[in-house]
User: Which sequence fits this backbone?
């Protein structure tokens, strides 16, 4: 994205949870976010353990570790926000010492997988909007006219 595009206003102010980093409190900011986007996701139990990941993706309650010198206890949290991940195909199908084949299989059953095979050429930068992206994906990309009438996307469309 160019600096010109980043200086433009995005269509909504969303709190976004991005890929967690290694550490004992990797999911600490998840409860405050409105959408979770795990870009270039690689299953790694050192970042988020398998059980937590599976519970999170099926909408179950997860324990979010918090620093006990600041908080009285860890948090039991049931994620409610939409979550998306992008990854290399092999990350979900080839165990690389991080997860077993059966764990990857359980992970795949909790995901709706979209495979993008075509490159869109001559796309100009537009401000990103996680809320619009979530609405479009959840709709399955159907009936785009309804979303346009509702102001989706809230950034200008680029016509060829």
Assistant:
């Amino acid at each position: 994205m160019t600096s010109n595009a980043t200086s433009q206003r995005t269509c909504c102010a969303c709190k976004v949870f991005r890929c967690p980093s290694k550490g004992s409190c990797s999911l600490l900011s998840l409860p405050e976010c409105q959408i979770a986007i795990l870009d270039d996701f690689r299953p790694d139990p050192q970042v988020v353990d398998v059980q937590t990941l599976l519970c999170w993706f099926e909408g179950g309650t997860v324990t979010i570790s918090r620093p006990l010198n600041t908080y009285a206890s860890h948090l039991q949290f049931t994620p409610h926000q939409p979550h998306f991940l992008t990854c290399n195909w092999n990350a979900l199908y080839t165990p690389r010492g991080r997860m077993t084949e059966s764990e990857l299989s359980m992970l795949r059953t909790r995901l709706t997988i979209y495979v993008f095979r075509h490159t869109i050429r001559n796309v100009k930068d537009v401000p990103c909007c996680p809320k619009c992206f979530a609405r479009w994906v959840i709709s399955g990309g159907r009936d785009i006219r309804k979303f346009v009438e509702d102001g989706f996307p809230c950034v200008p469309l680029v016509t060829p």
